[in-house]
Amino acid sequence: MKHATIAEATFMDDASLAATRKARGRPIHRMLVSFSVAYFAGALVTDLVYWQMPDVLWERFSIWLIVAGLVMAGLATVAYVIDLAGGRQIDRPAWPRVIGYALAVVLSLVNAFVHSRDAYTAVVPTGLTLSALVIIVLLLTALAATALANRQPIGG
Fold it and tell me: What is the per-residue pLDDT across 122-139, written as a single tens digit (0 to 9) for each?
């Protein structure tokens, strides 16, 4: 039978452990925002299908996707506030994304109220237009934030 022996032991105090801890991966709010954007895009697709094929099932899918996107937006907001309070590094520039995302969420909230009405007119044309506006706002926000992040400093 073989035995293992410990030749040397090293003890570290808690202070040295805290210095080696690193924040890993992406902030959770960015992942939650991605889910809400996907839900809002899905709502646009189901609105387009409902416009071409007026079956109430597609209108129900739209409202479910909008509500799911709003729930994820609420969770993303809570996660963002926690990240800010915890001192976690937030991507720069954050304000164009925050403003654009907030505008998209407000438009989606209005869209949820529009979709809650009955009849074909709940989706076409108002709901469809609002869904398209949400996606346009999100695309413009992403383009503006990317352009600002890639901007080179003057003289550099």
Answer: 789 999 999 999 999 999
DSSP code of 92? S
pTM, two decimal places: 0.78
Exposure string (b/e) for 95-119, b if CB count within 10 Å is 16 or more? ebbeebbebbbebbbebbebbeeee
Angle at the Cα of 97 (from 115 to 29), degrees rounded to 5?
80
| Residues, the chain | 156
**Rounded-to-integer distance, Cα 79 and Cα 74, Å:** 9
Alpha-carbon distance of 102 to 59, in angstroms, equals 24
- The C-alpha angle with vertex 88 and arms to 82 and 94, in degrees rounded to 5, equals 85
Half-sphere exposure of 5 (CA within 13 A, CB side): 1
CA distance 57 to 63: 10
